[in-house]
Specification:
With 122 residues, this protein is of the alpha+beta class. The chain has five helices and three strands. The longest helix is centred in the last third of the chain and has 21 residues, at 101-121. Bound molecules: FE2/S2 (inorganic) cluster. The site of FE2/S2 (inorganic) cluster has 10 residues, from α2 and α5. This is Iron-sulfur cluster assembly scaffold protein.
Length: 122
Amino acid sequence: MQYSEKVMDHFMNPRNSGVIENPDGYGKVGSPSCGDVMEIFLKIEDDIIKDVKFRTFGCASAIATSSISTEMILEKNVSEALELTNKAVAEALDGLPPVKMHCSVLAEEAIKAAIEDYMSKK
Ligand code: FES
């Protein structure tokens, strides 16, 4: 399987990996097809995402998509972050192999779940 340089970079040097204590938003999703799990932690002030961390037990693509998607939503308004699609995440990584597209869906779903958690608590 051929991965882009960007996928390899984000897999080897993940950005924003870790957890946030007492997050304003928290999302956890699993992929039924492979069993991988992704968690997203958000710190939000005035609807702006001020900090984001991820914890992913998964394949290289799942880690790379978690990493780049945290960069894509940092400092964004929550409504903008809700519009992030798995396609945009995959494109930002210069593409994913077709059998790995479901990994990027995890990132989209985990972010949406974390923002929905934040909104439900407001
Ligand atoms: Fe399941 Fe990548 S193989 S998230």
